[in-house]
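Homework help board

Subject: predicted structure for assignment chain

Our instructor gave us this sequence and asked us to write out the predicted structure in token form, then describe one feature. I got the tokens but I'm not sure how to describe them. Can anyone check?
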Amino acid sequence: MTDFPALSPEFLSQPAAERLEPGAMSSHPPRILLLYGSLRERSFSRLVTEEAARILQSLGAETRIFDPHGLPLPDGAGADHPKVQELRALSMWSEGQVWCSPERHGAITGVMKSQIDWIPLELGSVRPTQGRTLAVMQVSGGSQSFNAVNTLRLLGRWMRMITIPNQSSVAMAWKEFGEDDRMKPSAYYDRVVDVMEELVKFTLLTRDRADYLVDRYSERKASGRVSEVATLVAEAMRT
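My token output:
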């Protein structure tokens, strides 16, 4: 397993109110994991992702880009596969994520979906995605479309992530990069900057409050953490 820092079990076991004290507020750079959805030698989803990472770094974030080469198909190998372990460790390390997929046949690619499918909703008592921020982007070979980002939003909701409002869709991506593989100045580039700036802002606002924001009455009830008063209030609202 790649040696990335993980969330402290001691920290996770603290009540939410204790973690909201000023002394417990994080001061380290936002930790952002970036995923892209193509294995092509000159992958435009990878190039946009690399551009996004540069922008995030200029905004003060720490970034990691996962290379999907060698990642097996979901259920095609065990969870102990080195690439699966690497991906899951990176997701645990992250406080926010960027997902960028090409649009293929009106949807995201299998490469993109495989990465998301390998990240479980739960690992023991820890959820590798819940409460983390998410920005979605897509690239297209033709005219601008939003099919891929719409699908990524659906998946982000399913993974219980805080998906930011802004998004990026780069049309005719092959026109937007120079021979040096850097993105040319354009409205598309400006939108990528907008999205990354918004992601950093949402991550800073929510990372120390993520557990509180996603805390659910039904789960507290199932685990016996709901007080008698809260149960009576819920019953009163139902009647």
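Reply (TA_rk): Your tokens look well-formed. For the description, you could write something like this. Residues 1-23 have pLDDT under 50 and may be disordered. That's the kind of observation they're looking for.
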